[in-house]
């Protein structure tokens, strides 16, 4: 494409400078504070962070919800992507449009919709009281379940899109051939569909898991102070406690968790059976 390497580097140089000055350098300065103290470089910020029971609880809760959201999105996403891929081209385009439609709506608006559904006077509580399943409205908001549902609907389209793009590359005759050879649907999925869509699962899993880890609006609205997660705790450390060292530690933990998840998914995808 380019007559020499210099032309390609010259075109990439403005973007590289922009990323270096406005992203990499500021983030690097912020994260370096987590390793600094009056005595020099140290890991005391991390030991102090994990020595507090509240921080341990928040860390484990964030990890648990991230795994649950990514795992549930993968299960539902495979079913949805398989169904969409087998539709006619016209129907597939229309359903795909419905899948990406939520991405065009503000996450704030989508999260506030759950208040209408899960609030004390919301749809779910009205149905429970009306059917006699509960005497009084029950608390559904400010629970881990509410945060889980909000994060799941927030990032589900990303998983479906990733799996659908991978599933469309599967040859049309592979699955019928496996069925003719006697494979049941369980075997078809684990021996045919899953190996051929591993790259889509890695991309979708990374997007959903890291999104669930780093999302702030949904945990803040649906979880509040009762269901703290690392991102809401980070906000409190900066804007309430003015503790930038702890905030840097949390930011580094989130980055490590995101990269670790991506590496694990890639390792699983490339593992030989």
From TrEMBL:
UniProt name for this protein: Putative spermidine/putrescine transport system permease protein
Pfam family of the protein (one): BPD_transp_1
Membrane among keywords: yes
Major localization class: membrane
Mode of membrane association: Multi-pass membrane protein
The UniProt record lists the keyword Transmembrane: yes
Keywords of the record: Cell membrane, Membrane, Transmembrane, Transmembrane helix, Transport
Signal peptide positions on this chain: none
Residues covered by the ABC transmembrane type-1 domain: 59-265
CC per GO annotation: plasma membrane
Alphabetical list of PANTHER family matching this protein: INNER MEMBRANE ABC TRANSPORTER PERMEASE PROTEIN YDCU-RELATED, INNER MEMBRANE ABC TRANSPORTER PERMEASE PROTEIN YDCU-RELATED-RELATED
Native species: Loktanella salsilacus
Top-level taxonomy: Bacteria, Pseudomonadati, Pseudomonadota, Alphaproteobacteria, Rhodobacterales
Any single biological process term in GO: transmembrane transport
Transmembrane segments: 58-83, 95-118, 138-164, 201-224, 244-265
InterPro entries, sorted: MetI-like (IPR000515), MetI-like_sf (IPR035906)
Domain of life: Bacteria
Family recorded in the similarity comment: Belongs to the binding-protein-dependent transport system permease family. CysTW subfamily.
Compartment(s): Cell membrane
């Amino acid at each position: 494409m380019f007559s020499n390497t210099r032309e390609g580097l010259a075109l990439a140089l403005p973007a590289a400078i922009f990323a270096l000055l406005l992203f990499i350098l500021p983030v690097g300065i912020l994260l370096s504070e987590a390793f600094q103290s009056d005595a020099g470089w140290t890991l005391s910020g991390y030991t102090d962070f994990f020595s507090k029971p509240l921080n341990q609880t928040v860390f484990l809760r964030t990890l648990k919800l991230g795994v649950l959201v990514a795992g549930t999105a993968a299960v539902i996403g495979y079913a949805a992507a398989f169904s969409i891929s087998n539709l006619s081209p016209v129907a597939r385009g229309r359903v795909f449009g419905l899948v990406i439609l939520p991405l065009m709506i503000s996450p704030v608006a989508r999260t506030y919709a759950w208040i209408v559904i899960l609030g004390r006077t919301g749809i779910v509580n009205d149905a429970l009281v009306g059917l006699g399943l509960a005497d009084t409205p029950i608390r559904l908001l400010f629970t881990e379940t509410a945060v889980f549902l909000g994060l799941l609907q927030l990032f589900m389209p990303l998983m479906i899109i990733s799996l659908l793009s991978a599933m469309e590359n599967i040859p049309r005759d592979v699955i019928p051939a496996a069925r003719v050879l006697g494979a049941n649907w369980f075997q078809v999925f684990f021996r045919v569909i899953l190996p051929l869509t591993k790259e889509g699962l890695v991309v979708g899993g990374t997007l959903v898991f890291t999104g669930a880890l780093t999302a702030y609006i949904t945990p803040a609205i649906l979880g509040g102070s009762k269901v703290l997660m690392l991102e809401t705790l980070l906000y409190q450390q900066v804007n309430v406690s003015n503790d930038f060292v702890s905030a840097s530690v949390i930011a580094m933990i989130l980055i490590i968790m995101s990269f670790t998840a991506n590496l694990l998914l890639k390792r699983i995808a490339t593992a030989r059976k």
